[in-house]
Hints:
With 289 residues, the chain is of the alpha/beta class. The protein has helices at residues 12-21, 33-43, 51-56, 68-76, 98-107, 123-127, 139-142, 146-152, 164-192, 197-205, 212-216, 218-222, 233-250, 255-272, 280-288; strands at residues 2-6, 25-29, 46-47, 60-63, 89-92, 113-116, 119-120, 131-135, 153-158.
Amino acid sequence: MRLGFAGLGRMGAYMARNLAASGHDLTLWNRSSDKAVSLASELSCDVAGTPAALTAGSDVVITMLADDAASEHVHCGPDGLFAARGARWFIEMGTMSPGHIDALVASAPPEAIVVDAPVSGATQAAADAQLLIMAGCSQAAAAPIQPIFDALGRQTICLGRRGAGAVMKLAVNSLIHGLNQTLAEAMTLAEAAGIPAAAAFDVIESSAAAAPMLSYRRPLYLDEDAQEVTFTVALARKDMEITAALAQELGTRMPQGRATLDVLRQAEAGGFGARDMAAILSFIRESRE
């Protein structure tokens, strides 16, 4: 199967490596072409000059893009993925709004199949092919592309209908960002009482409140400056804005989510936007001071 992959950011580059390792004929495209050229040299695969060329040379195109605007540009621009014929499947694996997924379906070429299949898991999960994939389609519909999902993740959950993957990713991320903020508050409370940060984290990590993200993000919470950024505050704010808008559209209350969004906005305005979302701990500490 000929695969095209667009979007070689922190997650996408690892995902492309795993697809190449699975034996697929892979072609890459990235807005910053030097990233695509460098990775293609590493993987001994091709580079497309435009998204349209990626479509023309592929059976399936996978995109891992930052937001709705980036996805719209790559799919629907003059040289976008939808400007050519070739690929039958278009799989969007970034965190998008369900309305954007509907717009992609409406704009796609005739006979094309658009699937929202966002992932849960940080960069290490992407590197280890241990992502959770939330697919907005039935299991039967996913069957032709299941080998792609198997090369990228530990589990694929098919949610039955278009856009459900996008909704579920927002729901999961709202939990993650809320937990991130609540951890920051709990750690700051313990530290204010004189408990060392590492000891406080040991207790939290061993408690009923423990979650997998706490363990794999521990180094970031305890020594952010010594670690690589995996997920920025700005991206977390973007996620929560989309989630808050969806909650309003659906008529559901989300007071915790809105509180999380307020803090993320404050942190970004305070210069934390490009830092890892673990920096909310530093933001809460500084707010106390």
